[in-house]
Write a structure and sequence with these properties.
27% strand, 5 helices, 6 strands, single chain, alpha/beta
Length: 158
């Protein structure tokens, strides 16, 4: 079985290859993980481990001080459920305070039919309203997926 991270990158490969080497995460990157307290299931743990293995660094929390005081992160992983704190507020904070200009946000939300699922329309509206572009979403384990991955990036001025 391909790891969850490779599955996500394959889905978004056309965009990722047009902007770089086809990967979201690279060795040595600072990756910020944002979430409310969640019970990570096996699929979530597998994705977290794949990211840490790829970068060679642990996922960092904003609470641990990685990005406070002017530092920025290369990429962020945000686990979000409908009904938690404002998705818009989190995306604005990432865009303005944490994320480097060319950084991605890997937004992980519950799969359709699961508690906390976000509709496509709600995700597009949230991203558009705060200047973040959503490249689409992918269940990272198609059969029995519990989580869905979306890649978000800063919209560039025209």
């Amino acid at each position: 079985m391909a790891d969850a991270l490779s599955d996500i990158e394959q889905f978004f490969s056309a965009y990722l290859k047009s902007t770089g080497d086809g990967t979201i995460f690279k060795a040595g990157q600072d990756v910020l993980e944002i979430s409310d307290p969640l019970d990570f299931d096996d699929q979530a743990q597998a994705l977290r481990k794949a990211i840490e293995a790829r970068t060679g660094t642990p996922l960092e929390s904003a609470d641990e001080g990685l990005v406070y005081g002017g530092a920025e992160c290369d990429t962020a992983v945000a686990w979000w459920r409908e009904g938690e704190r404002s998705l818009n507020d989190m995306l604005v904070r990432l865009r303005e305070e944490y994320l480097r200009e060319d950084g991605y946000v890997l937004l992980i939300t519950p799969a359709e039919g699961r508690d906390g699922h976000w509709s496509d329309a709600d995700l597009r509206l949230a991203g558009h309203s705060v200047g973040v572009c959503n490249l689409g979403k992918k269940p990272y384990k198609p059969e029995g997926a519990t989580w869905v991955a979306s890649i978000l990036l800063k919209q560039r001025p025209i």
